[in-house]
Amino acid sequence: MFTDKNIAEMLSAGWGPLTYRLRTELADEVWHWNPRGTWSDPAHQCGYWTSDDSLGEPINVSYGYHLPRRGNTIDQANDDGYSRVADGDKQSFWKSNPYLDSHFTGESEDAHPQWVVIDLGASKPVNAIRFHWGAPYASRYRVEYWPGDDPMHLHSDDDDDDWQPLAHGNLIDGHGGDELIRLDERPRSVRFVRVVLSRSSQTSAQPSNDIRDRLGFAIREIEVGTIDKHNRFHDHVRHARDRHRQTVIYVSSTDPWHRAEDIDFSVEQPALDFIMRTALTTRSILLVPLRLL
Questions:
Q1: Which residue has the higher pLDDT, 284 or 68?
Q2: pTM for the complete prediction?
Q3: Is the dihedral of CA 179, 175, 208, 62 positive or negative?
Q4: Could you give the residue ranges of the DSSP H alpha helices within the chain?
Q5: What phi and psi values does residue 153 have, to the nearest 5 degrees?
Q6: C-alpha torsion angle, residues 136, 137, 139, 142 (rounded to 10)
């Protein structure tokens, strides 16, 4: 892409400022802008990564890293990942981003509720939901449905109020583990179900001195369906470790925890050093993203 000939063609277009955009953000991945840095758990080469900000050899290429705690089924890059909420593996889990917790934001405990939306693909009878919680689990949450068309591609934030609570889905106190909740006496025909997570148990699965392991919410699997007259639960969610075979899941955020082995060589990013050395920046301003949340 960045041959001299191609750069000359880019410059001939007469564009103004450049924007350095991250394919990793589109891919639901985390970015190592510098391959040198530190892990929060260096002994196991995993955890939360901090790139080194000291000068070193020029960096020509940087990479994205898959997120083992990914929540979204679909992404806007290679679209080759899948949600851990519906992968059929109760050892894996989705976890929300701990940096949205009040511990880091300084706001009230419920200032940034996290959510999971389940798209059943078509309207189906629903009167129950089952959670297989991870840690931390939600100690307070609610379950809602969407009465209209696809809510995930609306253009107005005001439409958030159109989510409707199910009869027994408002302000549920969670206790972790496996929870089967009857949401209504009779099944309601719905396509989109949303779980809004407002209070965290602030517990971790393993002993840890890292506060980030205890912040946010973790779900291993979600099942949505009906409890019949014989008190048997029937799940409508398709569980698979495949983006094309699992029920589509959307989440509000994802924990950036990852491992060295999660590097994704198919999501490469021209490094800042490389771009700054090209002719693209000799006559133009370069806008660079800075992660705040």
A1: 68
A2: 0.92
A3: positive
A4: 4-12, 23-26, 102-105, 272-277
A5: -130, 35
A6: 140
**Is residue 166 a contact partner of residue 188, using CB atoms and an 8 Å limit?**
yes
Half-sphere exposure (Cβ direction) of 60: Cα atoms closer than 13 Å: 1
DSSP string covering 163-213: -EE-TT-SSEEP-SSEEEEE--SS-EEEEEEEEEEEEE----SS--S-GGG
Handedness of CA 68, 74, 76, 78 (dihedral sign): positive
Lookup: tokens for 208: 């840890």
- For 285, how many CA atoms within 13 A lie in the half-sphere containing its CB? 4
Does residue 136 have a cis bond before it (omega within 30 degrees)?
yes
- How far is 4 from 269, CA to CA, in rounded Å? 18
pLDDT digit string (tens) for 109-149? Answer: 888 999 999 999 999 999 999 999 999 999 999 999 999 88
